[in-house]
Amino acid sequence: MLFKAYCTSLYSCSLWADYSIKSYNAIRVQYNNAFRAVMGLPRYCSASGMFAEARTDCFHTTMRKRATSLVSRVRASSNTVLAMISARLDCPYIRHCSSRHVPLPMPVRDY
Prior knowledge:
Elements: H1 2-7, H2 21-39, H3 47-54, H4 59-76, H5 80-87, H6 92-101
């Protein structure tokens, strides 16, 4: 409960568009370390395992949910400007969310 209340808010994280992969990973590492500290886990334990066992969203899942929530709210808005922007298939923010927060599918090979 403490971790979810204090560490998963990541205020305005869905707007983080101009970050480097290095800074994004640094925040992810701190997120994981904060969870380990709250749960009293050793530093070397598996991040995916500890989040799964605690039934808590990992950093990537939290970021995807925040980005998806923002896009959904913008698309559902009654504001005509927001509706126009969100309807565009070439919207830079939609492209950003798709490229940074959604895992890319594995390429299909033709043999």
